[in-house]
């Protein structure tokens, strides 16, 4: 395999001018996506994620900066860039009177793919839609419609798949099916760029994560490293009999009561030792049934960074 990046973005900016002022949707964004990784693009509403995706899709023209997709320059080779990307939109916009097979065939025709070179049946199998291949799209469940959007994006065999909020509005079981589908596509060599509001999904799937806020890149690292940057941990004591033991421990740590039978203490893992906290709580003459610990999750990282950048 040739040695180049799946996506190479350098100083990407986008400005929208209005009569009153200039809106800076993206400000000098620089990031790379490696071949074969699942890359998370996170940020609150209005952060610039959609503008970023639309520039890659060719529906929004950048103001400045350089974009390379699968080693094709967006300015010099826009057609090749579009062919290298499959985009799964957030909105479920499907013609209800076509079957999945017909929709995929139409999509292939739009890309100029010869009938002999089409892989419609394989895509239906990959997205687990073979049993519904000849049913009208209007009869499909919400999860199946999501999978059909993924199938449409795969018609021209793009090496990069961009998934914009792929599990928005689906139930827990369907969400898990879709996540497994994403992982399977990645194992087959597809590079995945994922935007999601479900931070647990990003934590579960992504090798690396970029967080943007107000059009600026505020974090870019391996998921594990981002989590390690949060030093707070939580220890939870489950009591046999509910009891209030005050508001603070001798060490000054604050005591919280999420439920009557639970005592929770948040601490800094660089400053406090868990054994000392347990010892202090046991001194309160209470009967402890169980002790649990919780590490920081991606939501803690996200909130910390976006508040800092607000």
Topology:
Layout: E1 7-17, E2 22-33, E3 38-42, H1 49-57, E4 64-69, E5 72-73, H2 78-83, E6 85-88, H3 100-110, H4 120-126, H5 142-154, E7 160-164, H6 172-187, E8 191-195, H7 199-205, E9 208-213, E10 216-222, H8 223-228, E11 232-239, E12 255-256, E13 262-268, H9 274-282, E14 288-294, H10 298-308
Helix pairs in contact: 5-6
Structure description:
With 310 residues, the protein is of the alpha/beta class. The chain folds into two domains: 7-227, P-loop containing nucleotide triphosphate hydrolases (Rossmann fold), CATH 3.40.50.300; 230-308, Alpha-Beta Plaits. Helices cover 31% and strands 28% of the residues. The protein has ten helices and 14 strands. The protein has helices spanning 49-57, 78-83, 100-110, 120-126, 142-154, 172-187, 199-205, 223-228, 274-282, 298-308, and strands at residues 7-17, 22-33, 38-42, 64-69, 72-73, 85-88, 160-164, 191-195, 208-213, 216-222, 232-239, 255-256, 262-268, 288-294. The strands form three sheets. It has a six-stranded mixed β-sheet with strand order 6-7-8-3-9-10, with helices on both faces. The radius of gyration is 24 Å and the shape is globular. The model has no long low-confidence stretch (mean pLDDT 90).
